[in-house]
Amino acid sequence: MKILVYSSKNFEIPYIEEANRKKHQLTFTKEVLSSKTAIKAIGYDAVSIFSADEACFITIEKLKEFGVKYITLRSAGYDNVNLRAALRSDIRVANVPEYSPNTIAEHAVALLLALNRKLIESNDRINRYNFNLDHLIGFDLNKKTVGIIGTGRIGTVMSKIMHGFGCKLLGYDIEHNAELVKNYGMTYASLNDLCAESDIISLHVPLNTETHELINKDLIDKMKDGMILINTARGSIINTKAVIEGLKNGKISALGIDVYENEKGIFFKDHSRDIPKDNNLMILNAMPNVLITGHHAFLTDEALTNIAETTIINLDSWASGKESENELTEIN
Ligand code: NAI
Q1: Does residue 39 share a domain with residue 27?
Q2: Which mutation among 11, 12, 51, 154 tests ligand 1's pocket best, with the greatest number of atoms within 8 A of CB?
Q3: Is 256 in the pocket of ligand 1 (CB under 6 A)?
Q4: Active site residue 295
Q5: 135 included as an active-site residue
Q6: CATH of the domain at 219
Q7: Is 176 a known active-site residue?
Q8: Is the CB of 96 inside a 6 Å radius of any atom of ligand 1?
Q9: Closest residue by CA, ligand 1 atom 13
Q10: In the chain, where does DSSP find H-type helix?
């Protein structure tokens, strides 16, 4: 098959080429898929996309018109694809549902530890030979309550790691994970109770109509004073403005995010010479108790290997006329 790999980054190309073993004809482009760039897919059977690509209704219509039959996502989240439009257009879509939940959960833990123990500020001071320890006090994670919102693949690993730290676990999910309850002492709670009782909250739900701005002003008001919020899921699961207010009034003592609601068009590129005119990002960047990484929670050798291999497996299935085991057929 001929595949156009949108948003391809230098670091991932060797992984994809290695997994492909010259089976499919791959063309790599740094361009992001949009209604404007869909035209580049003329003559290709499939496109491979990542989280910054936008397969909206119009883009899907265009891909269909240009003869594209398959979309394979190099991500687990697929909130950037209008699945309904794709299925109506007979464009088949598959993702990489489980490339390494550990990769993302470990990044969430890294954000949490760095914030709690003020590692960035400490290192900034050391770089200036300032060995003063004032205002660097953190707290033990042991015996603290961690609220896990979304106890699927990543939330489960996160729960197990936090259990290892000696934390008490509260969970919120539409489906309960019996293993976490039985072996890790997880208690499922309502969103309100989880927020009221958690010292730390980590988000691991997909972005969908129900989770859009799930963390809003009402819920933040119910949270414990001085809690820490970690978001490695999707930016729009939190209402950034409300979270900034929470940071300002001390409700939230620290925020760690790998995702940002307006990240499209900003993340994955060097903007050091054309600083994005995004007020909320500027405010967050200016706060010492906010740690932002640019959607790089997935960036491990294991995850990149699995993403590449599953992407090629998806393409292999379609090339041999079969349904991919990762095909997305349910609209939520
Ligand atoms: P998963 O599908 O295994 O787990 C998601 C959980 O959320 C499920 O247990 C599901 O029941 C629950 N859920 C869905 N809708 C809900 C709702 N309305 N209310 C309460 N619970 C709900 O997904 P996984 O693999 O754990 O990934 C979670 C999300 O993490 C992905 O959807 C993706 O957006 C994000 N992600 C971010 C990455 C990054 O690089 N920062 C990389 C990979 C995933």
Answers
A1: yes
A2: 154
A3: no
A4: yes
A5: no
A6: 3.40.50.720
A7: no
A8: no
A9: 205
A10: 13-20, 57-65, 83-88, 101-116, 119-127, 153-164, 178-184, 191-197, 217-222, 240-248, 279-286, 301-319
Check whether 331 has a pLDDT greater than 90: no
Mean pLDDT computed over 302-328: 97
pLDDT value of position 332: 61
Could you read off the pLDDT of 61-100 as tens digits, one per residue? Answer: 999 999 999 999 999 999 999 999 999 999 999 999 999 9
In angstroms, the CA 63 to CA 162 distance is: 44
My answer on whether 77 and 136 are in the same domain is no
Q: What is the pLDDT of residue 120?
A: 96
Same domain (yes/no): 316, 190: no
What strands, in cross-sheet order, belong to the sheet with 2-5?
25-28, 2-5, 46-49, 70-73, 92-94
For the CA of 259, the nearest atom of ligand 1: 41
Looking at the structure, do residues 9 and 140 belong to the same domain, yes or no? no
119 & 60 share domain:
no
State which of 100, 160, 205 you would mutate to test the pocket of ligand 1, scoring each by most atoms of that ligand within 8 A of its C-beta. Answer: 205
pLDDT band at 330 (very low <50, low <70, confident <90, very high): confident
Q: H helices within 217-300, ranges in order?
A: 217-222, 240-248, 279-286
Cβ of 52 less than 6 Å from ligand 1: no
Q: How many domains does the chain have?
A: 2
Q: Are residues 214 and 65 in the same domain?
A: no
C-beta 233 within 6 A of ligand 1: yes
**What length does the chain have?**
332
